[in-house]
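Need residues for this backbone.
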């Protein structure tokens, strides 16, 4: 449980933009105002992973599973059972950002 963002993983601003790689992982049962499973402000790649049963509690943001304000690659991964009080129980991608999903499931 996090009081800000990123209950499971928080990937914040760095001096040099860096890409976070989450591989063959399970991120589950986290709670945060936004980005309860994963919150990233730099590029994010998730591959071969399960993001499950995370809950974003803020009524002004979302992203129960993932919140990304940079480029998101979701590859061979599953988002399931995530919830948000506002928008996006699964992934939320910020305006001006891109999301690329390959063999990804969200339910």
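Answer:
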């Amino acid at each position: 449980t996090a009081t800000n963002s990123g209950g499971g993983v928080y990937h914040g601003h760095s001096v040099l933009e860096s890409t976070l790689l989450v591989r063959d992982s399970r991120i589950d049962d986290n709670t945060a105002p936004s980005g309860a499973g994963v919150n990233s402000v730099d590029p994010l790649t998730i591959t071969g992973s399960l993001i499950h049963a995370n809950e974003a509690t803020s009524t002004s943001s979302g992203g129960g599973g993932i919140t990304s304000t940079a480029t998101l690659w979701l590859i061979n991964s599953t988002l399931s059972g995530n919830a948000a009080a506002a928008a996006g129980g699964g992934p939320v991608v910020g305006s001006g950002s891109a999301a690329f999903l390959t063999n990804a499931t969200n339910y």
